[in-house]
């Protein structure tokens, strides 16, 4: 582990700036010990302009935290750039990452470049550049347990060349949130995938595409939810570009 801001049961660490550091090769096979920075509770913390390399869990892990600002950081060959669980009123913006690795589940990694776990609210993931990963791009996931997220913004991100999905939402994990103006391209699975049980989310002005030797083609958008939203889903899709399942969510 590089930096541990606190342990479970202690008061939250507050008013900290972590800036212009290098965190490298934390590889202990235990949750919290394969991270560059990990906390079980902090508030009013800024993480800016740091470099992270070679972490088998995540460059950054924020649990039960609030008012965290993460910006301008670089990740190379980490399993996951950031994991959020139980965190509110925080942002992950203008960061750049590449070469994300696949690691055993026992390391506690997020199986994605960005993993939004359980019970988060009012988090913005915006204007990040995420490329070349062995798993997924941005993932709203039940990997760390169930607990719905709400008022999450995933906006203006570039996600490309992941082995699996580009931007995905697992079952029963997201309501009242916005996925907007993202470009997901040339990923191995669906570019955008919303599983069943997610509702009242807005997906707006996203682009799904695949670039190959034949040129640029539409990528795939998929929504398995059922309800009174767009094309019989439980969500609302507007002005998205791609090939949709069901037809009508992307055009």
Task: Describe the overall structure.
Helix content is 0%, strand content 51%. By secondary structure, the chain is an all-beta fold. A hairpin with a 2-residue loop joins strand 25 and strand 26. The radius of gyration is 17 Å and the shape is globular. The protein has strands at 3-4, 13-19, 22-24, 35-39, 42-48, 51-53, 58-63, 66-71, 74-76, 82-85, 88-93, 96-100, 112-116, 121-126, 129-133, 136-140, 149-155, 158-162, 167-169, 174-175, 178-180, 183-185, 192-194, 202-204, 207-212, 215-218, 220-223, 236-238, 243-245. A ten-stranded parallel sheet has the order 1-4-7-10-13-16-19-23-27-29, with no helix packed on it. Strands 2, 5, 8, 11, 14, 17, 20, 21, 24 and 28 form a ten-stranded parallel sheet that branches. A nine-stranded mixed sheet has the order 3-6-9-12-15-18-22-25-26, with no helix packed on it. It has no helices and 29 strands. The model has no long low-confidence stretch (mean pLDDT 95). The protein has one domain (3-245).
